[in-house]
Each structure stands twice: as structure tokens, then as C-alpha cells.
Amino acid sequence: MRKDKNNKRLIIGVFLFLFIAFLYFSNKLEITGTSFTIKKYNLHNEDSKVVQIDNNLKEIDVRIKSNSKSSPQGNYKFNIYDKSNKLVHSENINFKEFLYSGSYTINLRKLNLEKGKYIFKVKHYNYNYDTKINNYTYNLKLKYNNTDIWKLFISFYAFISILFLFILVRGLKNKDELHVLFLKLALPIMLLYVFAIPLYTGNDEKFQWVKAYEVSELKIIPDVKYNYSGAVLPKNITLNLPYDGNLKYSDIIDNLKCKINNNSTYFISGGSMDIYSPVQYMPQVLGIKISKLFTSNIVLIIYGARLFNMIIGIILLSLAIKIIPSHKKIMFFIGLWPVLIQGFTTLSGDQLTISLSFLFIAYLMKLKSSSTKLKTKNVIILAILSSLLSLCKLVYILIPFLIFMLPKEKYENKRQHILTLILVLGIPVILNVSWLLILSGVSDGSSPFAVPSKNLQNFLHNPFVFFKYFVYSLESHGYKIITEMFNNDLLMMHLVINNTLVPTVTICTLIYLLFEKSEKKLVFSKGDKVFMILLTISLISLIYLSDYIFWDNYNTKYIYGVYGRYFIPILPVICYLISEKIKIKVNMKNSRVLLLISCLMINFMTLMEIFIKFI
What angle do CA 420, 397, 380 make, to 5 degrees? Predict the structure, then answer.
């Protein structure tokens, strides 16, 4: 009986959420102007303008352009006449309406003007409407309700609503282990992101694509030309897509017929991606190679690379959830965060970095909780994971140092202990030093505003200056970085800003899961906790230091180029630390239901935000 009541409440809650979300996004579609087709006209004061009006005219935005140095003051009368010169609408506008947004919106929704020719006329008076002023031009934006956009919006909304409801029902009935459930959830959700996120809107995705294509052509070490690193590649592989955020789904459709032309080549730079080792592009390269067996269409090849990046990421994360001895639900939850998914479903190298980091931490915690001693197989796996992780991004070379948390009792003897440290820590150092030596003189991967040699010199001369900038940056941008990590900002140049509900649900669910009594408790000594704290602080400092050296001007007082997603690889360690501090642990019967609903909710909201942004 009680179970039926709970199910009934859950159903009512889900449908209420979907109804409110529909109202919110349909309203946002209008507010952002996405649902409008716009036509522009200029109208001079006292002149009449004959305008052809089509059906579904909803609004007219009026902007003032002064033909003199005077400011727009007084009153304005905007009149619309039909073809028989009959007044059909008149609106009085006070100049204060223009002060804040610079425009005034005339709402014509209730008027329902028929299709035809109309006469627009604007008169500018002083405050008493007795003296005309004739030195203004008016920019008019006629906004028509785009029925095609509304059809697409409703279709997409209905599709993901039905899909997510199906996933929810199946998930509630599912009794599989968490790593299996993760596979079943992650695949359809991430697949939606692969196609919902337009090409080149992922973080640095244009350059990620160029780098991945270079590696697929076995151009591992970039050439240098005109002081830029890169490679000679087919000229049209970069496509004719805007790279300033002003991109729509229609732009991708326009490029669908573009095929690789190996007869026309030129030198293309991979930007700062050229300093990265090819390791983090292996999933994308595999996708490119397999896609090229079936097609030469560039858009389809890029989507193929995205798909393989996603699939390998899902498999690695699922494996990490399976082997981690405790806090499985937390890793499950983080694995379905939109800020993480954006890297898995674009061409970003973040996927392999995060996946390998989670897998290394999970495997290490498994070994720590085990009662058996280390075997050769365990050491080899740790060495491979640490080497691959450090080659993805050099700063994360600190994560393998968690090996020091394994007690001496885990080793057969002192010789095995030393050999393990050499393999797990020494090999990554040797590989990265070798890669940097190979790249010497090729590219420093820095920002055009940065002078790395000068920044490094300043740091070595006075390290305290960097720490001062580090503290300033945390004070000024720390909150933004934290909210971004919790799914507030997504994609390149923060193109998608989520509703406050998304980071709120993310944080609340994570806190809820941290209070849950874990299925298997890991025992951390005081030394382990101190070591994890020091390693976390060191990694955060190293991320800021690398950004300071390679991306910021040496005269700056702030370090600007750090993003919340940079800290996701160390997030499981931070969660372990916080969980250890929470003394009150509760057995929560409905945590799996909450986990499922939270994952679906934050991804539903995010996918709708992405769709509305780029439709």
C-alpha cells in the first residue's frame, strides 16, 4: 500500500516537472528570440514606410539612432496604418523606455494583423506633444512567430520526455548492479548529446578535430611553418562553420555534402593541441579510421570520431564503477554530469583523461581494500594506467602518487615495493620528459597573449608572486569555477548556461550521497588523509601554475584560463576526503531512486538548453 502511494507521488512529481519545464523552455524560446523569424527596416522620423507584413507577426523591436549629438528624449508616437490609410495600431513611447535596453518592444500578438502591406510612421515630440523633433532614425525588427521552430521544439521535447520516462520506468524496475545500470543509462543519454551538441561548439573542438585527424594520418610530431605548429592536411576538413558561437544546426546541414579532398591541401595549425601526446586522441582516431572505411563525408567522420570517444569513455567509467570498493553511487552520479558528458560526446581529450583518472583511483582503492598482497599483474596495470593518464595531460602526473597510500604490508618485500614505485611513477616521468624533448622547438602551446619564458622566469625569481595571483584568482573566480564544475556552464565560451536548478540538484544529490552509509568502508589512516589533502592542493596549484605560465600575460594579477572541468579527475579523492569527515552515516533505502531521478533531471534540463541555443 505504501509502495503504491510512493509510486503515485513519483508519477505526479515527474509529470509536474515535465509540465513546468515545458512552460519554462517555451517561454525561453520566445525571450531569446529563437522562435522568431526577423526582418529589419529603417524608418526616418516623419517619413512613411510601406512594409509588407506576413502572417504571425508578434512583435516589433524599435531602436533609436540619433542623427545628431542629442540624446533621445521626449515622447514617440508609433502608428501603423492599413492600405486604406486606416489607423490599426498606435503606441505612445516615453524616451525612458529606451534608456536601459536601448529598444522598445511593441506587442502585436492580440492584434493578429492579416498578411498585406501596411504603412509605418513614427513621430517624435517634446514632453507636451506640441513640438516635433526631426533628427532621428528608427531601426525596426519585425519578429514573426516561426512555426517550423515551434514544431521542432515540441517534437524534440516530446521525444526526450518519452525517452527519459522510459529510462526512468526501466531503471526503477532494474535490479542490475550499478556498473550495468550505468551502461544502460549512459549510452542513450550520451548519444543524445553527441547529436545535440553542434560540431565545433565543444571546448576547442575545431583544434581537437585537426589534431585527431593529424594523428590518424600518422603525423604524430607536428611540423612548424610561419612560427605555427601543425600539418599539411586536406584544405576542406575544417568545414565552413562559424567558430564564434553563432552556430545553428542549419549550418551543419549546409556542410553535409562536404567530402575530403586530398588533392587540395594546405598547412593547418592544431593550436595548443599540438603539444599534447597522441594518446588522448586514440578513441577519436579509431573512430576516424573506421568511419573512413565507409564514407569520405567530413561531417559523418567527425560524428564517427565522437561516437568512439563516447563508447570508450562509457566502457572505462563502467569498469571504474564496477571495481571501486565503495562510493559507487557517487562515481555513477559524477559519470552522468553534463560537464563531464560534454567531453565524452565531443572530440575532447578530456574523456580519456577523466576516464583513466577514475579507473586508476578505483583500481588503487580496490587494491587497498583487498586482503591479498600485490601481484605482478596489479603492478603492470597500475603502471599502464599511470603512464597513459600522465600522457593525456602532464599536470595529472600527480594522481599516480596516490600509490603511496598502499601500506607496506601490501608488498611481498622491499624489492617489490621499490620496483612498483619505479614502474608506476618513474615510467610516466620518463615518457613525458621524452615527449617534451621531442617537441622542443615545435610549439609551446601557449596563448598569443602569454610569454611563457617570462612567466617562468618571474615564477622562479619570486614564487610568492604566483601564490598571490593564485589567491586573488580563487577570491575573484573561485565561485564561478565551482558552479561550472557542478554543471552551470557548458561548451566553448560558456555557450550554454544552465538554469539554477541544475547545479542545485547536482550539489544536493552529491551531499545526500556523501551521507549514505557505504556498502564497503575503506579505512584511511591519518597519514592517508593528510597525503590526499596535500596531493589535492598540489594538483590544484599545478593546474593554476601551468595556466599562469602558458596562458596568461606576465603582467596580469589574475589567472583567467582555469575551468571547473579541470578538477573533475581528482573529484573522487575529494569525495573520499569529505565522506571521511562525515561521522553520521545513514542507510538510505531510496538513494538509488534519487540517483536515477537526479541524473535524468539534470540531463533533461541541459539537453533542452542546448537545443534551444542552437535550433
Answer: 30
Query: What is residue 21's predicted lDDT score, i.e. its pLDDT?
Result: 95
**Cα separation of 594 and 586, whole Å?**
15
What is the dihedral angle through the alpha carbons of 79, 82, 85, 91, rounded to the nearest 10 degrees? -10
* In the chain, % of residues over pLDDT 70: 91
Q: Over the stretch 563-579, which tens digit does the pLDDT of each residue have?
A: 999 999 999 999 999 98
- Residue that wins the pLDDT comparison between 430 and 57: 430
Are the CB atoms for 576 and 362 separated by under 8 Å? Answer: no
Query: How far is Cα 425 from Cα 402, in angstroms, rounded to an integer?
Result: 10
User: 117 has which bridge partners?
Assistant: 52
CA angle at 487 for the pair 387 and 273, rounded to the nearest 5°: 40
In terms of pLDDT, which residue wins out, 241 or 97? 241
Extended strands (E) in 235-391: 265-269
- Specify the pLDDT at position 563: 92
> Which range is least confidently modeled, 219-223, 426-430, 562-566, 605-609?
219-223
Q: How many Cβ atoms from other residues are within 10 Å of residue 175's Cβ?
A: 7
Which pLDDT value is given to residue 226?
Answer: 75
Q: Cα separation of 275 and 557, whole Å? A: 26
Question: What does DSSP assign to residue 187?
Answer: H
DSSP 3-state of 415: helix
Contact 222, 208 (CB under 8 A): no
pTM: 0.88
- Residue 68: which of 10, 159, 136, 148 has the closest Cα? 136
Residue 474, Ramachandran bin (φ over 0: left; ψ between -120 and 50: alpha; else beta) = alpha
What is the C-alpha to C-alpha distance for residues 448 and 229, in angstroms, rounded to an integer? 13
Strands 136-145 and 36-44, sheet pairing: antiparallel
d(CA 382, CA 348): 24
What does the buried/exposed string (b/e) look like for 56-92 if buried means 16 or more CB atoms within 10 Å of the residue's CB?
Answer: bbbbbbbbbeeeeeeebebbbebebbbeeeeeebebe
Q: Which three cell numbers stand for residue 66?
A: 540619433
The candidate with the shortest Cα–Cα distance to 572, out of 329, 358, 403, is 358
Quickly tell me which residue has 612498483 as its cell: 420
Cβ pair 312, 388 in contact under 8 A: no
Average pLDDT, the chain: 87
Q: Residue 92 pLDDT more than 80?
A: yes
Pick the closest to residue 398 from 371, 429, 436, 368 (CA basis): 429
Per the document, the length of the chain is 615
What is the spatial distance between Cα 470 and Cα 449, in angstroms, rounded to a whole number? 19
Distance CA 339, CA 53 (A): 44
Report DSSP letters for 213-246, one per residue. HHHHTT--SPEEETTEEEEEEEGGGG-S--SSS-
Using CA atoms, how far apart are residues 410 and 370, in angstroms rounded to an integer? 9
Write phi, then psi, for 268 (nearest 5 degrees): -120, 130
pLDDT at position 69 is 53
Please answer whether residues 123 and 76 qualify as being in contact, where contact means their C-beta atoms are separated by less than 8 angstroms.
yes
Q: What is the mean pLDDT of residues 82-95?
A: 87
Which class for 482: exposed (0-12), middle (13-18), buried (19 or more C-beta within 10 A)? middle
Judge whether 567 and 485 are in contact, CB under 8 Å: yes
pLDDT, tens digit, 9 for 90 and up, residues 420-466: 999 999 999 999 999 988 887 665 555 555 556 677 777 777 888 88
